[in-house]
Predict the 3D structure of the following.
Amino acid sequence: MDQKSIAGFSKLSKEEKIDWLSRHFLPQSGKEHFEEFWLQNDQIQRIIDGFSENTVSNFIMPYGLAPNFLIDGKVYCVPMVIEESSVVAAASSAAKYWMDRGGFTTTILGTVKVGQVHFIWKGGFTQLQKLFPDLEQILRQNAASITANMEKRGGGISEIELVDFSHSEPGLAQLRVRFQTCDSMGANFINSVLENFASTLESFFLNHDGIPDHLRDINVIMSILSNHTPECLVRSEVRCPVSQLGHASHGMTETQLAEKFRMAVRIAQIDTYRAVTHNKGIYNGIDAVILATGNDFRATEAAGHAYASRNGQYKSLSDCEVADNVFRFWLDIPLAIGTVGGLTSLHPLAKTSLEMLGNPSAPELMRIIASVGLAQNFAAVRSLVTTGIQQGHMKMHLLNILNHLNATEAETRQSLAWFEDKTVSFAAVREYLEQLRQYAE
Ligand code: MEV
């Protein structure tokens, strides 16, 4: 066994894990960092240790606030967890801008979540279809103890569909199950139902009268929810007369700004290279709220990118129209999220985020998150077609540079004032600080 490999790592205590790490992989400073972050809040560390495996510390991210989000007539202050500078500032600025123009209007287009049981049966799809009514009844019956609670809350299994994949693989078929999971993301509920379905499938084919003995074998390959959620969809939209777009138009008339903005969105509909960056900007906002509320950003990203490709080409998730002197900008986005269960109540700050949002239902949180995505996209595209993004970005980055160069509070104040109307770069900031420090000597 290689000296650097280890058996039974998970059984070591946190201290032992860090000791082992520092013997083989980590300089002393790294060991101190792990302990410093963890010991700062031993109690919280204990909570988050329960979320994952082999935890030795925690990883701090900025938790910011974007106020002034007017969504469907209600004002929210939105929590955002993100490390990238400018994102929260951009969301806040777009929120304020649209608050003065009627705010965001949203529509829930669907709340369906999907799960699948993939299996192989050699009796032919036509025969499978004939057996399906009996099968469906038994599937629902056997899963009743798992679905009872969800049904009481208004959710449960809404549809079981039989899908044929025998054209791709002999005998391959699928139970595609649609669920309503109310305010929970529903992953555990869906997967439990699907695994129950898998055992029902096996017993059904073993015992059902209408199946000849040589076809009693069914091979269940796997049972798992799908993160493709095109039917768990929300639209957020802003609109205003072109004349109210305002004078932030950098030498352009409002009409020119509206048209340039529309064209920028159109380019993201036409060109995949641009579409990916455009959508990344949307997810800057979305992921930040997903993280702050203890939801699963990998699931929502995967769903969004698949949805962006639904017509065979990866495109912008947002759309823009300028017609009859009205500027309209909207985003349709799948968001399979929850406001109960999972980390939402376990992570103390996720719980606080939800409280700050007024303990929303899952559909209400979908409306909020989609609006933050749209605001973020609006801010990015507006910068791109006017000032370019570097101006704002480097202003925010200035603080990072100042921190990196160990600027004092007074130096930070002076630097922020000095760079108010100048181009920020690492070299320029270093030079300015050197000058300040020389004069101070
Ligand atoms: C940067 O994180 C995001 C942007 O590139 C998005 C965009 O180009 O639309 C500014």
Q: What stands out?
A: The pocket of (R)-mevalonate is lined by residues 84, 277-278, 280-281, 284, 380-381, 384, 389 (CB under 6 Å).
